[in-house]
Every structure is written in C-alpha cells, then in structure tokens.
Amino acid sequence: MDFFQKRMFRIILLFTLILSFSASNAQKSAFVKSLGHQFVINGAPYYYVGANYWYGGLLALQKDTIKGKQRLISELDFLKSQGVNNLRILVGSEGEGKINGVDRVKPALQAQHLVFNAELLKGLDFLLVEMAKRKMYAVLFLSNNWEWSGGFLQYLNWNGQIDNETLKRKLNWDEQRDYTSKFYSCEACKSDYQKQLKFILGHKNTYSGKKYVNEPAIMAWELANEPRPMRTDAIDNYKQWISTTANFIKSIDKNHLVTIGTEGFMGTDENWDLFKEIHANKSIDYLTIHIWPKNWGWFKDAPTAENLPLVIEKTATYINRHESIARQLNKPLVIEEFGLPRDGHAFDPSSTTKLRDEYFGNIFALWADSRKNKGAIAGCNFWAFGGTSRPIPGQLFWKDGDEFSGDPPQEEQGLNAVFDSDKSTWKTVQTYLKK
Fold it and tell me: H/E element holding 431?
C-alpha cells in the first residue's frame, strides 16, 4: 500500500468513526426518541404504562395556589409510586362560555381571539418541573376536535364560520360534523391555530428558565385531541393540515417527537388507508389509537359480565390491526386513550370496578407481551386519572369552582375517572408493570 492509499484509508476510517460516534450520540439522549418501532431514552428502550391527566397544567393556577400545587405534588408522587411515568396533558383551551351546549375547560390560554395569556402557562411550567424531578414524561396535546376545551369550533367562530348563537347551542351529530370539518379548509382558522402553536413553542418555563423546545420532560407534541376529517370531502385538506403542521413544529423544535392524536380507524372515516397514509409522514414519529367501547356501541347501557368478553375481543382485534400498520411503517404505537365505566355504570367512587379492571388487564397484557418481545406497542395511557378529586353527591356535571377530575366538564363526573382510591385498578396496573 503506497503513501496515497494509506492516507485515503486513514481518512475513510476517521470518517466512519465520526459517523458511528454521531449515530451513537443520536440514540443516547435525555429526550424521548423513536428508533424504528421503539421509543428510546439514552439509547435504552422505553415502554410505559401512563395515564391521561388532561387537567395537570391547571392545578397550580387554582385560586388557592398553595392547595393546587400541593394536590399536584401529591398526585405526581402517587402516580410515580404506582409505576406510572407518562402523562398526556392539555396545553390550553380556547375561548370562554358555553360551547355546543356544555361548559368548557377554564381558565383559557386564549380566552379572546389571538390574546394569549402567558400567566396561564405557569401552571404547565410548574407541572413540567415537578415531572422532571420524578423522571416523568409529558405528551402535550395542542388543541381539540371536540368542544370541551374550545378547539376547532372556537377557531371557526372567531373567523365567522359559526355564529355565536349556533356555537353555544347543542349541535346534533351531523351539524357538528359539518361545522368541524370546515376547520381544515378555513385558512384563517389554521393560521390562528399556528399562531397559538408558535406562542407555546416559544415559551420559556418560569421556574426552570428552559424553553419548552429544550425541555426533556416533554416527550411529544400532539397536533390535537382526536382530530378527525369529520366529512369525506374534508380528507384532502385534513391530510394537508397534518403534514403542514407537523413540518412546522419540526422546523422550530428539533428535540421532541410529534404525533397526530388520532383514534385510529374509527377516527379516520373508518379508512385504514387514510390512517396509514397520515402516519407515514416523515414528520410524524409514532402512531396513536383510542378505544371507546361505550361510545362506539360495543355494549348497550352498561358493561356486564356477559358482554365484556365481546368487548375485549373487539379491543384486541382493534389493537392488533393497528400494530400491524405500525410495524409496516416501522414506528411505535401508543394506545393513548381507553376507558370503561364503573360496574353498573355507577359514578360513586365507592362502587366496584371489577369489569374495568379486567378490561384494563387485557390491554396491559398486550402491551406487556410487546415489551417482552420488543414489539411496536410501546405505551398505553388509560383514561383518566382523577387523583384525589371526588364527584359531588347528587351533582352529575362539573361546575365552575369544582375540583378538576379525570372526566372533562361535558361528561358525568365519575364516569371514567380512576381515583387514587381505586385500589383494585392500581393493583392491576402494578401486576403488569412488575412482570
């Protein structure tokens, strides 16, 4: 080998080592990353059982801030003690007052059109700092297909697509589909959504001094809670909005994962090809599905010992079909919402949860098998943690001044919430986490 050949060999060797070192460092990061169909933290696989904690960013904003912060700290300590280290959280709501016949989440991040209240993010700031102390990770959803936090209907109202009277009254299902689907073709609405998004991404945590884009406690940004095209003729605009928004987030934030927040087949006009196509986008890092047996008519009235086996079978089929797509795309899958009412469809926290525990256990078993075999089902977040809150006897729905719970304002309080007192459910969680 002459001098020139030796020199070229050394250059190639050095270049190879640099690439190898760079790839290794890319995998080793305090941020949650996706590597094929797995999540990794510092190069190690990250499989998790998590909870929906949509109100977590609001607790430190309560009138009695000390009490609110104490509740938050207590609930995070409880979750951590149970092995839960992943939480799905609402960033902020849009608008004020009645919407689609119900009260919405308050206080709002954007109470008035394009007027953002940075003070409202201090609650999320506090939550993220406390989560970081406990090595917990947050999935933050940025808006909502549904009315309970303002979401797309509010953007449509602000831009003249829905009048105030129509916005406030209860819409029938066809009306809701017609109106909500217009969001994807409303350029002003999408521009407003992006302005709020940019405001959030540019925020600096009051407590840590870190910009959100540099915060490892944030696992992912989610475009919205359950964004659906709602009508077939909105599908093309729906796909374009997903692509544009995901690319926009990636252009600002190089550290965090991005996902859509879909329910899966049921949320994409029952179109498997559409579900696969929107998650194939290179700016979408992982797939999500939600499972709601009651809403989807998988049982009537209440879950029973007789109808539960069919519900479990349908759930497993739903999960497995989506996992197959995740494997095809070589991306992780998260079952990020699933819930079941208490036995007898009761709302009282003292009522039993035998059927719910069995249902949860079957989902956790699929996740545990995936973890064991390094599969694509990387995480699951049950709906929803209700913490130390309790429904007010004789009152079905949330009222201003009540404690936040796992059930949003438009749903019966106690319907799907998992309270800290639900010992049998927590035993089920721990059974699969300890395997």
Answer: helix 423-433
Q: Is 400 helix (H, G, I), strand (E, B) or coil?
A: coil
Residue 127's SS3 state is: helix
Quote the pTM value. 0.93
Mean pLDDT for the chain overall: 94
CA–CA distance from 130 to each of 57, 74, 85, 136 (Å)?
A: 11, 11, 12, 9
Minimal CA–CA distance to 141: which of 126, 122, 156, 124?
124
Burial class (CB within 10 angstroms; exposed 0-12, middle 13-18, buried 19+) of 208: middle
Statement: residue 145 has pLDDT above 70? yes
Contact partners, residue 239, CB within 8 Å, separation at least 6: 274, 277, 278
- pLDDT tens for 25-67 read 445 789 999 999 999 999 999 999 999 999 999 999 998 999 9
DSSP 209-247: --BGGG-TTEEEEES-BS----SGGGHHHHHHHHHHHHH
Coil, helix or strand at residue 83: coil
Strand locations in 14-94, DSSP E? 33-35, 38-41, 44-45, 48-52, 86-90
- Spatial contact of 338 and 418, defined as CB atoms under 8 Å apart: no
Given a contact cutoff of 8 angstroms between Cβ atoms, the answer to whether 126 and 133 are in contact is: no
Query: Distances from the Cα of 137 to the Cαs of 89, 231, 266, in angstroms?
Result: 10, 34, 27
Which run of H or of E encompasses 173? helix 173-181
Q: For residues 74 and 388, is the Cβ–Cβ distance under 8 A?
A: yes
